[in-house]
Amino acid sequence: MPDSTIIQADWPAPSRVHALTTTRRLPGNSPPPFDAFNLGLRSGEDESTVRANRVLLERAFALPSSPRWLHQVHGDRVLRLTSEVLDGEPQADAAFTSAPGVVLVILTADCLPILVCADDGSEIAAIHAGWRGLAAGVIDACVRRMATPPARLLAWLGPGIGAASYEVGVEVREVLLRHDAAAETAFAPTHPGHWLCDLYALARRRLSVLGVARVFGGGIDSCADPRFYSHRRDGARSGRMASLIWIAASPESA
User: Fold this and answer.
1) Which residues, in sequence order, are bridge partners of residue 244?
2) Rounded to whole angstroms, how far apart are CA atoms 163 and 188?
């Protein structure tokens, strides 16, 4: 695939760990306003079109299994997944596994996708972290359930809305500060009752508090970059990108 159609995770993960985020520029079936590679079933696009794009996704990247799609609800539920195939799309906003060949996936359109792996490639996780998920403690919940100690984890922050594009009101700020008062540094005042909110800074702080010191990525603004879907920019008719992570089934496939 051409580099412009995907974002490869730029981190020193073991070679058997594969991690990437799709863009809307992959050749898909979605007509405007979703053109062309929408992967979100709950985005308002015809379901058959989205499912056709999901089939293309599996083929384009020769995935070792179908992604374990989740019904994301901006909460803190975390699933431990095995090679057993899921029945439908369970409600959760994070998942982790140590099973090779299991493809974890998070859908976003401004929320922050966080991909995590053990430094020896033995365990991986995928986290959906918008402001509600951050306030609910989804990062904490996932890292604490993983078998790998936080000091041995690496994290990559995929494409999400940048601080320059993300103005929030007093309600959002107060909710996030109730979760972590020291996170005030992630907010920059604009006009009375409004602040620019840095989701990347909030995520880095939570990871640091938990003991995850090696954090990468975080330099893309999905709202400002037309390669990505953005709910803030496009409203309810926005599609969804997918952030994927899996452990190669064998060293030969790494």
Assistant:
1) 20, 105
2) 9
Q: How far apart are the first and last CA of the chain?
A: 17
Quote the CA–CA distance of 48 and 63 in Å, as a whole number: 20
Question: What percentage of the chain reaches a pLDDT higher than 70?
Answer: 97
Give the C-alpha separation, 166 to 180, whole Å: 19
pLDDT in tens, 223-252: 999 999 999 999 988 999 999 999 998 655
pTM: 0.96
Distance CA 44, CA 60 (A): 24
**Nearest partner of 113 among 55, 153, 77, 157, judged by Cα:** 157
Of the listed ranges 52-61, 67-76, 79-88, the one predicted with least confidence: 79-88
Q: Considering only CA atoms, give the Rg of the chain.
A: 17
Structural domains present in the chain = 3-163+213-249 (3.60.140.10)
Q: What is the dihedral of CA 47, 61, 147, 10, to 10 degrees?
A: -110
